[in-house]
Amino acid sequence: MYSSSQSSSSPPGAGKLIRLGIVGIIGIIVLVMVGNQGVILSMNMTEFGDQFTKPLQYSLISAVVLAAIALVNVDAKNRSSIVWYSIHVMVTFLNRTTHDPVTKNISSFRDYKLSVPQFAIWQITKILLFGAFFVNIMFGLALTHLLDGNDLGVDKLPNLFSLPFNTPQSSNAALTVIELIPALTILVPPLLGVIGIRLGLYVGLHSIVKVITSYISDSSQGKPKFLNYVSTIEAVIGIGIIWAGINMFFTEQIDYNTKYVIGGTLGAGFILIAFAIYDKIRSKVLTHPIKRDIYIRVFALIAIGIIAGTIMAVNNSIADTRKIEYLGPYTQQQITLNRYLGELDKITVTTNDVKLTSISPNNIKSYMEQNRDVLDSVRIWDWEAAFAKLKPEIGLIPYITFGDNDILRFNNTLYWTASMKPVIPSTVSLENRWYNEHLVYTHVPEGFLTLEATTGQSVQAQDLFSQRSIYYGEGGLFQETWSAFPTNREGTSAEITNALYSGAGGITLAPPLSWVFEPNFLLSYPNTSVHVMRYKDVYDRMETLYPYFLYNLFGQKLDIYPVTDGTSTYWLVPLIIGFDTHSVPWSMGNPYLRLVGFALVDTYDGDITLLKHGDDYFADILESQYGDKFLPIPSWLTEQIRYPQELFTWKTEMFNIYHVTDTETFIQANTFFQIPEKIDAYYIQAKPPGFDSTQFLGLLSLELRDSRGKNLSGYMIVENDLPTLGNMHFYQVPLNSTTKLIGPTAVREALEKDNNFAQLKTLLRTPRIGDNILYKVGEHDVYFIPVYTAGSGEGVVAQLGTIAAVGAAFNGEYYVGLGSTQQEAFEAYLQKLAGVVPSSTASKPEPGFDKEARIAKLKSAFEEKGLEIVTPTSLSVPLSFKEGEVSLFSQIDAEATDKLLDKFLDEFVLQKTRRVLIWQEQDTINIGVLSTVEGVPELHYISVIVGK
After folding, report:
1. Which of 211, 248, 641, 787 has its CA 20 to 30 Å from the CA of residue 535?
2. DSSP state of 73
3. How many whole angstroms separate alpha carbon 614 and alpha carbon 874?
């Protein structure tokens, strides 16, 4: 029989087996993780080639160089290491006896040394362990470019250190900084960062550890050397202050006080180092610092601070009254540098002399015909209405949803194009989710819907996009997961719509690599190769293969949109680079942004083609490293391409401030512009002043900042046609213009006040006022505003209620025209402007030319000829002939009226009779004569419309 103690005891060696089992499990987990990552790395290199290896190469270069600068200890004599010293102390502490004091087991860090092999291996190990934290792909790319013998302005960096100490003349200092921007944006910031880390580790941390351990060691012997410790701390603080002073040369702003800040900081640092050297020498004799010496050091630092602060305060006080003299030269550098950052010198500024000129009612039809190209191109349907109208076309398909809606141009016609993304239907159960994610919902079969932006008519997407299947897109399952299919499916497919993918996207994995990539394939396809498609989200794909560019700007994803060469469909991705400029003097922190080119990402294969457009220094760096990978923009893309909205808006924001080049005006800050609230860039077909035909343009209206009137200071446009892509024009309204250009806020108010619209509004069901886009129609600045009868709610189709044409030129009166089309609305606007119908506000007749004056003018034309005017109460004539009609509302109509009257008098009155009939019908004055032809009375007359 076994005793209870025997029955509860573990078998011999059980603990060892358990430990081995745990180690084995951990080993398997590590092996699987390492194996999986190794397979992914191998897949990336096989599928993408140098598209993947080049960024990896630049990452490795930057990691090695920057980690080496930050972490490698070159002090081979002392061969110290805090990490190994800490391990040594911990081991010693654990092995100590309970009676040993703690101080006995802590040796001085100053006396601890690694062996030469261990020291060398540890320096390499640090790079391998921590190199990933120092990856800066831009630094690696630029360093490679520099080592290839190219210039980045590094040799001119010493010129930077003289800038704070010289009052700049003209813009020479800013031009010097501009030459240094490549180095200041790519090379200097990471170098400053790693040098700071190195100083913090090997000067700061090492010295502090030495002081602490020396104090413990010396105290155990009863001989603490306080003066020695103080000298070390003084040196550390002094070096830190000097490093802070050096960093002040790489600042975003330099003014008349900067030199005193830098001088005071460097002075304080060097004084502390001098005191440290002095105390280090004295520490050989003294152990404790003298109280008087401490006071001297404190008072010296305080004195430096007081002197520098006093000088700066005096300068600020003087500058308050002599601001232009003191601050002006530095402000000029700020303006010059930021105009370079925003490429503002390339913007053409044109004075827009706003006038409110009415058109004679007799010429309205011909005027509209002359401007038919603009009127036919007006964008009536906005994003929200187009989205609402396209949404029902998805129908009852539960596995796709909208991704984005973009404005595109084909054959000089604008279209809203909605792209879609796949999603898992909510009805899919949890146990079936993996299967559906990876093998079924792999793509969108017909991924685009299109709507004509002017008429609102749906267009068959296949008429624009021959290839509509999207395997590589944005959002949804594209972003969440990968897809796959077995290579032996032989005509049977689990994909939706029984699709059989036959493109070149993805990579085929044979067992056992397929098992490591996805363990489910071990059991489901043990002997079958699997074709895997990864990085199906365009943003993820581009960021993995081309991480140099920005795919998220100002808190939002970069806008990409579909284009086609007639056969294949691509996503057009703007390639925008951006650098922080906090190390660039006078940049004020405004970023350096440039358009390098575009990328075409095939929606079916995922293939990426790079297109070069930019000509800045970074575009040259990329072109030198990627060689023939950058291709010219193909001709078929000429009409579909557009300038990125993000860059257009950012450049306009820069222009809002730095259009002011006069330093005094800039300092007064009363002529800055701003984009009106809730207004984004509109992409439209328009014909601004100076253009011979309608062009595909981006438009942004600008207001005077802090102006209460919210009138427009002008509007900015950007061209989208090659080769003028990106050219910007600003049409500026003079501040002293008597006729104002009303802004988006005022134009909404004008529409709301219009009597006709107020009546119509009550008849419309839940109306929504759409975009108010400013167009130049001939000589008239006009807002075209669509009004919809339904919004974009679920299951609701937007309908167009009316279109308003609101005059943007304002001289005290608003003119609003309504119509079912933009042509009708514009005609109604011109009629109101001409006075044919009452305007939306109280009419102000032209002085001396009201209705009675106009009738009197007509009568005087006959009285001057000695003719008798007869006003019949009724007319009954067998035959009547209308010989012409004209409108008379203003002086500009007088010439046409006089011509018609003279012609009528010559042909029907002067040679036949001295008697003229005049009678009125509502708003028309009729002028006629009676004659008898072969015994039959005939009435010949003309009509002059004079209004009600």
Report:
1. 641
2. -
3. 78
Helices (H), 598-696: 617-626, 645-658, 663-668
3-state secondary structure of 807: strand
Contacts of residues 210-218 at CB distance under 8 Å and 24 or more positions apart, as own/partner, are 210/108, 210/109, 210/110, 212/109, 213/106, 213/107, 213/108, 213/109, 213/110, 214/108, 214/109, 214/110, 216/103, 216/106, 216/108, 217/103, 217/106, 217/107, 217/108
Alpha-carbon torsion (549, 554, 558, 559), positive or negative = negative
- Distance CA(852)–CA(165), nearest Å, equals 77
Q: Greatest CA span in the chain, whole angstroms?
A: 154
Confidence of residue 95 (pLDDT cuts 50, 70, 90): low
Over range 93-102, report the average pLDDT: 60
915: its two tokens? 């008697």
The answer to whether the bond into 937 is cis (omega within 30° of 0) is: no
Instruction: Go through 638-647 and write b for each residue having 16 or more CB atoms within 10 A of its CB, e for each that does not.
Output: ebbbbbbbbb
Helix residue ranges, H only, 149-225: 172-182, 188-198, 206-220
Exposed e or buried b per residue across 782-803, where buried means at least 16 C-beta atoms within 10 angstroms of its C-beta: bbbbbbbbbebeeeeebebbbb
| Residues whose CB is less than 8 angstroms from the CB of residue 377 and which lie 6 or more positions away in sequence, other chains included | 412, 414, 454, 684, 685, 686, 694
Regarding beta strands 608-612 and 592-602, do their DSSP bridges make them parallel or antiparallel, or are they unpaired? Answer: antiparallel
Give the whole-angstrom CA distance, residue 35 versus residue 24. Answer: 16
Name residues whose C-beta falls within 8 Å of residue 38's C-beta, 6 or more positions apart in sequence: none
Residue 641 has a pLDDT of: 95
Whether residue 581 contacts residue 252, with contact meaning beta carbons closer than 8 Å, is answered with: yes
* Phi and psi torsions of 233, nearest 5°: -65, -40
In angstroms, rounded to a whole number, what is the distance separating the alpha carbons of residues 82 and 109? 8
Span 747-766, pLDDT tens digits: 988 898 888 888 888 777 77
Q: Beta strand pairing status for 561-564 and 569-579?
A: antiparallel
What's the gap between Cα 301 and its chain centre? 47
Q: pTM for the whole thing?
A: 0.85
The overall average pLDDT reported for the chain is 88
Contact 586, 252 (CB under 8 A): yes
DSSP 712-730: EEEEEEEE-STTSTT-EEE
3-state SS assignment for residue 932 = strand
DSSP labels for 556-607?
EEPP-EEEE-SS-EEEEEEEEEEE--TTSTT-TT--EEEEEEEEEEETTT--
Q: What are phi and psi of 926, to 5 degrees?
A: -105, 140
* Full strand arrangement of the beta sheet holding 592-602: 561-564, 569-579, 592-602, 608-612, 630-631
* Beta carbons of 606 and 617 less than 8 angstroms apart: no
**Going edge to edge, which strands form the sheet with 400-410?**
400-410, 413-422, 448-452, 458-459
Q: Is 49 left (phi over 0), alpha (psi -120 to 50) or beta?
A: left
Q: Tokens 């700007």 appear where?
A: 553
What is the radius of gyration, based on Cα positions, of the chain?
Answer: 40
- Is the Cβ–Cβ distance between 139 and 145 less than 8 Å? no
